[in-house]
Every structure is written in structure tokens, then in C-alpha cells.
Amino acid sequence: MSVGTSRHDYTGRVALVTGGTRGLGAGIARAFAAAGADVVVCARKDTGDAPGHFLPCDVRDPEDVARLMDDIRARHGRLDVVVNNAGGGPYVPAAQASPRLHQRVIELNLLGPLHIAQAAHPLMDEGAIIMIGSVSGTRPSPGTAAYGAAKAGLHHLAACLAAEWAPRIRVNTVVVGLADSGEDQADHYGGAETLRAIEATVPAGRLARPEDVAAACLFLASAPHVTGASLTVDGGGEQAAWQYLVQRATGA
């Protein structure tokens, strides 16, 4: 489903997408804008082509988050949808990563979404908060241990907030699998040949795209009786490495 053919109508609603200037976040922001929402995107830096109204914010800094919400209150007076998309972390084996790196990764992927959700709460008469999670938080994540642990915590945080803030505010999680954010993915996955091999392990035959994640967000933001849920967007899962190797060796 393209953002131009969205079946959802968010006219008159205000949506905040963190990390919305690039990659998956920009795709989510474009989808809500196409559905009629007044979109606010935040990030530490403006790329110059961010969809919606850009406001600078480091979600790891509670004071920065408070300023962001003050700006949204002054401009819009309310929030209806919050998509906690800002996140990420580099590949570094746990034994080699510095304590500072681990701290920053957990701040970005777990504490940042909590800061945003808590600060957004007073601006939301009712509405939806969506956490962008990861399969790294549901299975071992070697090389990105702090990231995987933070995403596991984020999934649990969403369930806790859903129970605490119901029925006024619904909180759900989109658990994203291997994804093509549209930003030099071949380099990220070790080259075009490796990327093709990785895609072959996904039952759907390709990585998740921004519009796939955006479609899940549009649904969860409009589903009135869905809260505390996790919606997985992974193209059918990740095939076990041994299965892929057997198929490649046997031609099955």
C-alpha cells in the first residue's frame, strides 16, 4: 500500500514522529501526512526535507523533550498520535563496547521513548502511542546486545503503559524485522550480494520497507480496541541460518 492510497483518515489530528527526518521515520511521517494528519517530526538535526513540521529534539534529554512538547502545545494545543521511532545502535561486540556506548544506546532506545511518552501524556485527551520495536528484542542479538536488550525493555514498557493509561491512551508496538530503510542498505548489510542472500532468508522474499512499517502504524493508531499489542512486520520471520544453508547446498 502506497502512502498516496491510504484508507485511513487522520484529518484534523496531530501526529508526532520521532526520528522522522530519514529512513523508516520519514516513511511513517509521510504516511500520516498523506492520511491528512498535521505531522510534527523531531530529530537532533534537520535534513532539510523532513515531511511535516520539523522541531529539533534529542529524545535522550528530558529538558529537550519538555521544550518539544511546549512547542507542540503552542502550535497545535494537543497530540493525537505519537510514534516513538528514534532509535538504533552500531554493531559492536559486547566485550569490546565501551560502557558509555552501552549507556547511550539504552538511553536512545528505551529511556528516550519513555521520556516522550511521559511528556506527551498531558497533551493527549485520547489517542495512540506506537513504539517502533525490533525483532532484536525478541531473539538473541549478537553484536548489538545493548540495543536488543533496550528493545526488549521497550516492548515491555509499551505493555505497562497500555495497562496504566487505558482506556484514554492506547499503547502498542510495531516489531520490525530486517528492514530496508532506503539508506545505503547494501553497505549496511555488507554489500549487494550479501543483501540478496539475506533477503532470500525472509519468507516474503524481501526486507521490510518504510511503507510496510507505516501501514502498521496507521492501523494501530486507528484501531479503537487494540492496546498492549505487538504487531510484527518481518515478512514471515527470519529463516534459520542452517535451513538456508541446506537449501543452498541442495538446491531445494
Please summarize the sheet with the most strands: 7 strands, parallel
Domain unit count: 1
Q: N-to-C SSE series?
A: EHEEHEHEHEHHHEH
Indicate the structural class: alpha/beta
- The CATH superfamily is identified as NAD(P)-binding Rossmann-like Domain
pLDDT averaged over residues: 92
Shape: globular
How much helical structure, as a percent, in the residues? 40-55%
What is the strand content?
15-25%
Total beta strand runs: 7
The third-level CATH topology is Rossmann fold
Radius of gyration, in Å, reads 18 Å
Describe, in plain words, how this protein is organized in 3D.
The chain is of the alpha/beta class and 252 residues long. The chain has a single domain, classed as Rossmann fold. It has helices at residues 23-34, 62-75, 99-120, 145-165, 185-188, 192-200, 210-222, 241-250; strands at residues 14-18, 38-43, 53-56, 81-84, 127-134, 169-176, 230-233. The protein has a seven-stranded parallel β-sheet, with helices on both faces. α4 links the parallel β5 and β6 (169-176). The radius of gyration is 18 Å and the shape is globular. The two termini are 32 Å apart.
Q: Descriptors for this entry?
A:
single chain; 252 residues; alpha/beta; Rossmann fold; 8 helices; 15% strand; globular
